[in-house]
Amino acid sequence: MDKFVVIDLETTGNSIENNDKIIEVGIVVIEKDEIVDEYTTLLHPNKPIPPFISNLTGITDKDVINAPTFDTIAEDIVEIFKDSYLVAHNVPFDLGFLNYELTNLGIDRLLNPVIDTVELSRILFPNAPGYKLSQLSEYFDLTHDYPHRALSDAYVTAKLLLVLKNKLKSLPQETVRQLIKLEKTLKSDISLILHDLNNNLPKVKEEITSYGGIAFKNTSDDLLETREISNSFGTFLDGIYEVEGRMQTLFERYEKRPGQREMSETIYDCFVSNNHGLIEAETGTGKSLAYLIPAVYDALKSKSKIVISTFTTQLQQQLLDEELPLAQKIIGHPFNTALIKGKQHYISLEKFARELEVNNKDNYDITLTKAILLVWITETNTGDIEEIHLPSSGYMYFKKVSTETETNINPLSPWFSYSFYQKAKKRAKKADLIITNHALLCSDLFNDFEILPKYNKVIIDEAHHLEETASRHYGLKLDYVTFQHSLNRISSTDGTILDVVNNDKWNLLLTDTKHEIDDMFRTLFQYVLSQSKKNQSYSDTGRIQYRFDLEKEEAQRWNVIKDMALRVNNQLKKMVNELQLAINLDQDQKIKNEIEASVLALQEYIFSIERFFIKGNSSEYVNWMEVDAYGAKNAVYLYSEPTDVSELLSKKFFEVKDSIILTSATLTMKKSFSFIQNRLGVPDDRLISKQIHSPFQYEQQVQLMVPNDFPDISFSTMDDFIYATCEAIISLSEITNGRMLVLFTSYDMLRKAHNILKEALESTEYVLIAQGISSGSRARLKKNFQTFDQAILLGTNSFWEGVDIPGEDLSCLMIVRLPFQPPNHPVYEAKAKHVQEENKNPFFELSLPNAVIRFKQGFGRLIRSKTDRGIVFVCDSRLIKARYSTYFTKSIPNIPVHYKSTAELLEIAENWF
C-alpha cells in the first residue's frame, strides 16, 4: 500500500467529552512519495468558538456561519481514506474526533493503519529540539505559512512524513530488525514498511558497527595536534583583546570590555603564583571566555591539564557547543577538550543489547524509549543521554542500561572498546581542558581523585553552588523508589544471579525484603505527616520536610521504626549471605564480578539504614525526611548532610591543589567575599580576590520599584498579600504588554497566585505560564514564554538563576518576597545551630548572606545585554525598611530606587517605558 492520507483538524477544544467540535478539516494525499491531492473545508460546529481558539487559529464565528456541518461531508472524507494509511501529527487526537463524529452519524469508524508523525519524529530524530509541528517545521526548514490552520498543518505534516520515510531508509539493518520486534506496541502501523526496508536496505555506512544484535556509531578519537605557545601571556592577551586583535577581527561590532581582560589576568596570576582565586564577574563581563583564554594558555604552556567545572550538565553543554568553539577561533592555537560526566549519563551498549534480548511485556513508554535509543546510538558520538528527550518513565528504564549498572567489564572485551564512558575517560586523559560538573568533581574529590585524570588547577564556574553540591556528595540519600529499583536490578542482572542461587529461596527472600521495605517506608510517611503538624516546613519542590534526631524522637513510636529498620537490614544481610555463598562456588569471572557488585550495593544500603535509624546521629550531620502529602504512601526521601563542609574542602581540596579559581556573578555580599570564603574553607594565605564590574549602564537601563502600601505579612494574612501581588501583576502586565517574569520563594505561593491570575486573565489575550503547573521543562517553559507576544511567566527555585531571556521578551521582573530560607528548613536549622555553637549570629552569618546571593541571582535575570531595559518590582518592603536592607541594595548595581504607593509606581513605570 503506497497511499498516505494526511489529516489535520482544528476544533473548538481538546476534549470530545466536553462536546468540542471540528471547525476545519485539511487533507493532503501522498502517492509514490508525491503530494497528488488536497481537500479542505471549514465546518459549522453548532456552538460558539471560544476566544482562545479564535486567537490561535484566526477562525471566528463569522467565518463558519455559512459553512457546512460535518454530516454533509462525512461520506466524502471516508472515500478519501479508502485503501490508505491515515497519517496525523498526534493520531489519537485527529482520529478520535473523526471517529466520534462518524459514529454519531451511524457510519463505521475508520480502521485504517495509522502513522503518527509525532511518534515517528521522536524515534527517528531523537536530537530534535521539540516535537510540536512548528518546532519540527523549523528544524527541517519546511514551509509553514499558516500554523494552526488545517490545510497548512496537513501540508507540513505531509512533508514531514516524506522526511521520516527517507530517514527510515537510511537505518542499519540491525536497527530495523529490532524496530520490527517493537512495532506492535507503537501507535504507528509501520510493520509492512519495516519488513520491506529489511529486504531492501542500502550498504551500511562505514562508521556504523554491528555487534551483539545492535548497530551503533563507533567513533574514533580524533585529537588535534597541539603546540606550545611561545608568546608571553601579556603579548598573547594583546593579540586577542586589543586593537586589531582577534576579537575585533571576528566580531563586526566588537567593543572592548576591560573587565574581561582583567579577569583573564587575575586567573593567570593565580595559576603562576599557586594561589586560589575568588572572582565575582558581574553580568556582561564575558566570564566564560575570560577564564577559557588563560586556561588554554596555561594548559599548553605548562603541558598540564586544567579542569573546568560547571554546576549543571546543561551549562557543560553550553560551554562545549558555544563557548569552546568560539575560544578555539579567538585563541588561534589548536587545543583538545574532553567532556566527562558521571557513569549514569552514558548508555551501556552491552546492557542495552542484553535488555533487548529479554522478552519483556513492556508498556508503551518503555517500548518508545527502546526505539528512540536504537536510532540514537547509530548517531551519537558521546552516548550521553542529555543529548535527547525520553518519555517520563523512559529515564527509569535508562537507569537499567546506563554505564552505572556495569560491573568490571573485561578490557579485552569488544564491549569495553565500544563503551562511550571508557572513550570519554580515554579522551580526558589526552585532553588539555577537561569539562565536568560540580557533582562529578565532588565525587572525584571524595573518592581520593580516582575518577578524573590527575590535575592541579581547576576553574569552578557558578561557584556559589559548590558548598551544597559538596554537602550532598559527602552525605547520604535513601528513597523508596530507588531502593526497590536497585533490588529489582540486582535480581535481574543479566540472569546471572538466578543461575547461581537457589531460585525458590532467593525469590522468597526478595519478596520478604521488599515487603519489609514497603512497611518501613509507609510507617515513615505517616510519621512525617504526624510530626510535621507541629512545625511544618516545605522543600523547594513543595514536599513536607521533617528533621529528625535519633536521641530526641518519641521513644515509643521511633522504636517501632527502629525495629522495622533492623528487620530490613536482617533481610538485606541474608541476601548478602546468599550471594557470598554463590561467589565461593566455581563461577566464571564475569558472574563473580556481577555478584560482587550486587553485594557492594546491598552493603551500602545496610550502612545507610544503620546511619539513619540505628546507630545514632552525629552533631556534625543533619538528617531529614521529605514526603509529598498527596503522593504515594511509601514515597519517602531520606537525606543526611554535613552541617559544615569548609574544613573538609580546606583539607582535601584547597590544601592539595595548586590553584582553584572560584567564579560566579554572585559571590559577594556588600562587596565582601568573607561569607563564601568561610563557607568553602578557602585559606587566607593563598587567596587572590577580585570583583569584575559589569559594562552595562544599569542606572539608565533599570528602575527598582518597591510599593509602600502592600499588606505586611507580619500583621495580615498571606492571602491578602497574594491578592495584592496579583493585582500588581495584572496592572504591570498592561504597561509592559506581559513580558513579565515573576519569581516566588515557594510553590505554595505560586500555585495560589496562578489560580487567582488564571481566573482574572481568562478573557484576555495574556498567556499565563507557571512552573510546576504548565507542562514542560524549564527550557520548554522559557521557550513558550518567548513564543507569545503577551505572556507572564511564574517561576520559583530554578528560575532564580540560569534563565536568560534577553531583549524585549522580558521587560519586567517581579520578585514577590526576599528569598530567605524558612527558619524551620531542616538544613538551615542544623547549620544555624552549628553557627550558634561558635558564638556567632546565624541570621547575619548564614540566612542573610544566602538570601542576598539568591536575590542577586534573581535580579540578574532582567538585564542580559547593553540594550536591555526594564523594571524590577519587589513586593517586599523589607528591601527598604528592614535594618539589614542595605545588604541587599548595596550588593546590586547602583540604580534608581522608587519607594511609593503602587498607583504612583505604576505611573512612573508607564512614563519610563
From TrEMBL:
<protein>
    <recommendedName>
        <fullName>3'-5' exonuclease DinG</fullName>
        <ecNumber>3.1.-.-</ecNumber>
    </recommendedName>
</protein>
<feature type="domain" description="Helicase ATP-binding">
    <location>
        <begin position="268"/>
        <end position="532"/>
    </location>
</feature>
<dbReference type="Pfam" id="PF00270">
    <property type="entry name" value="DEAD"/>
</dbReference>
<comment type="function">
    <text>3'-5' exonuclease.</text>
</comment>
<dbReference type="InterPro" id="IPR006310">
    <property type="entry name" value="DinG"/>
</dbReference>
<keyword id="KW-0269">Exonuclease</keyword>
<keyword id="KW-0540">Nuclease</keyword>
<dbReference type="InterPro" id="IPR013520">
    <property type="entry name" value="Ribonucl_H"/>
</dbReference>
<comment type="similarity">
    <text>Belongs to the helicase family. DinG subfamily. Type 2 sub-subfamily.</text>
</comment>
<dbReference type="InterPro" id="IPR045028">
    <property type="entry name" value="DinG/Rad3-like"/>
</dbReference>
<dbReference type="InterPro" id="IPR014001">
    <property type="entry name" value="Helicase_ATP-bd"/>
</dbReference>
<dbReference type="Pfam" id="PF13307">
    <property type="entry name" value="Helicase_C_2"/>
</dbReference>
<dbReference type="InterPro" id="IPR036397">
    <property type="entry name" value="RNaseH_sf"/>
</dbReference>
<dbReference type="GO" id="GO:0003677">
    <property type="term" value="F:DNA binding"/>
</dbReference>
<dbReference type="GO" id="GO:0006260">
    <property type="term" value="P:DNA replication"/>
</dbReference>
<keyword id="KW-0347">Helicase</keyword>
<dbReference type="InterPro" id="IPR027417">
    <property type="entry name" value="P-loop_NTPase"/>
</dbReference>
<dbReference type="GO" id="GO:0008408">
    <property type="term" value="F:3'-5' exonuclease activity"/>
</dbReference>
<dbReference type="InterPro" id="IPR006054">
    <property type="entry name" value="DnaQ"/>
</dbReference>
<feature type="binding site">
    <location>
        <begin position="281"/>
        <end position="288"/>
    </location>
    <ligand>
        <name>ATP</name>
    </ligand>
</feature>
<keyword id="KW-0378">Hydrolase</keyword>
<feature type="domain" description="Helicase ATP-binding">
    <location>
        <begin position="246"/>
        <end position="520"/>
    </location>
</feature>
<dbReference type="InterPro" id="IPR006555">
    <property type="entry name" value="ATP-dep_Helicase_C"/>
</dbReference>
<dbReference type="InterPro" id="IPR011545">
    <property type="entry name" value="DEAD/DEAH_box_helicase_dom"/>
</dbReference>
<feature type="short sequence motif" description="DEAH box">
    <location>
        <begin position="461"/>
        <end position="464"/>
    </location>
</feature>
<keyword id="KW-0547">Nucleotide-binding</keyword>
<dbReference type="GO" id="GO:0003887">
    <property type="term" value="F:DNA-directed DNA polymerase activity"/>
</dbReference>
<dbReference type="GO" id="GO:0016887">
    <property type="term" value="F:ATP hydrolysis activity"/>
</dbReference>
<dbReference type="GO" id="GO:0005524">
    <property type="term" value="F:ATP binding"/>
</dbReference>
<dbReference type="InterPro" id="IPR014013">
    <property type="entry name" value="Helic_SF1/SF2_ATP-bd_DinG/Rad3"/>
</dbReference>
<dbReference type="InterPro" id="IPR012337">
    <property type="entry name" value="RNaseH-like_sf"/>
</dbReference>
<dbReference type="GO" id="GO:0043139">
    <property type="term" value="F:5'-3' DNA helicase activity"/>
</dbReference>
<dbReference type="Pfam" id="PF00929">
    <property type="entry name" value="RNase_T"/>
</dbReference>
<keyword id="KW-0067">ATP-binding</keyword>
